[in-house]
Amino acid sequence: MQNKTFYFFLFLSLFLWSCDSKSVFDDYETVPEVWNKDNTVSFKVNPPDSTKAYNLFVNLRNTNAYKYSNIFLIVEMNFPHGKSIVDTLEYKMAKPNGEFLGTGLSSIKENKLWYKEGVIFNETGEYTVNINHAMRENGEVNGIANLEGITDIGFRIEKTE
Q1: What keywords tag this UniProt record (predicted)?
Q2: Alpha-carbon distance 36 to 13, whole Å?
């Protein structure tokens, strides 16, 4: 009986994994206990095709310990030949009633956040994407040093349709 259960879950996992035909790159970094404002999360990417357009996403997983309704991120994309693009982005994380957005049945919610649409990686070589949080309390000049409730930060590249 245990073998049947094991094979069922193995088959289910493979089936769900194979359904994600849009994904070109999808990676996560786990945050220790808190996300320090100086802790840059980096992803190294070698795009497969320099002629096709891709959609880029920042993925975040949060728990109930996250106490804000939004999040500010600084996302920097470094190109292989030295060019750099830096964006300050704001995303909603909760509804006005406090219910978290995102998917997930447990206390961890996963958020797939648009970063850029229709990007063509026209330089060959390795791209680096750096992500930091830029959260501040209202009326405060200094940022929040240690952001609680974010468990994982991810970066995803998808084929356009």
Answers
A1: Lipoprotein
A2: 33
